[in-house]
Amino acid sequence: IVQVNFYQQNTGSTQILQYVDFAAKKIGTTKIVIQDSAKTAEVEIIVTVAVIVSSPSTFSVKTQQAKSGYINGGTSPYKIIQPPNSAIATVTLSGSSITVTGISQGTTSVTIGDNSNPSNTVIIPLTVTIPPTFTTAGKISFASTIGDFQTEGIYGANNSNDIPNNDAGAGGFVTKYSGSGNFGQMIGYKKKISSQYDIIALIFLKNSITPGTVSVDTGISNIQREIGNVVFGFNLVLNSETNPLYSFYSGDLTFSTFNEQTAEGNFKGKASRQGVVGSDVTISQGLFSVPLIVEDGTNYSTSKESQKIFNQIEEIIKPQVDKMKEQIELRRKF
């Protein structure tokens, strides 16, 4: 039922720490009696089925959106036993990491198994929804030492990862994190040819959805609340590694209006071409007035995730443990 291994560690004093490892072999109950020169300790051991769980236990994604989680418990390596409906979602598994990508609106599920024989499994429900769409036109403009930029229109994509599907537009996305502030981006673009856009993306991290200034400095290695990172792109070639991308390394992004419907304000600063020495660009007279799509996000610490998984396992195996304890008590009585 259980293989036991002892090993010790000398603490540098007269005390020696003795460790005991238990390696479960099969389901059942047993006990171990440990004795030193003065005392005896008896430990009861209950081995139950190896439980496999997913964190999160369910996935909710939007079309063209990907979310990741991880598998825990059971015996690795893990494998996909029953894939989801591929018309609704796709799932990839790499080690203990699982990624779900939304394809179309609907519900489905994926079954993940471990390396046991027979395999322990977990069924993960998947829900795919359609992202909200922009219905109001936005504006973004600025002047710079390498040219001016101005765009106006309804943002033609319903997801911050989508490629715009019209000639020009502007819009904003904000993901709310209760613990670490709000991550957002405001995007303006003008289509040039089928594969090229003039585009600007203002990326920021702000503690509250209220008016105020976000100071920008990408030289800060640990970005704190109220400090963001602004990225500019000019003549951006989509799906190519040769993007002439400019990064904002100093400046201010000021919101005169900032709520869950609208972002308005101004920006200014300096940028440089990535990897090109002496390519500094001065940005001035930056203005924006864009509609926003605001969504709630999740931000779990590792310790919270670990505790969540432990609670899941405990809940799943509790009936088995209770049953074994009842059997032990009956044997003790008779």
What's the multimeric state? single chain
Q: How would a crystallographer describe the biggest sheet?
A: 7 strands, mixed, barrel
What is the approximate shape? elongated
Structural class label = mainly beta
Helix-strand topology string: EEEEEEEEEEEEEEEEEEEEEEEH
Q: How are strands sequenced across the largest beta sheet?
A: 15-16-17-20-21-22-23
Task: Report the mean per-residue pLDDT as an integer.
Answer: 79
| Total beta-strand segments | 23
Cα-based radius of gyration, to the nearest Å = 28 Å
Beta content: over 45%
Give the N-terminus to C-terminus distance in angstroms: 23 Å
| Tally of helical segments | 1
Q: In terms of per-residue confidence, which ranges show pLDDT below 50 for 5 or more consecutive residues?
A: 218-227, 299-303
Helix content: under 10%
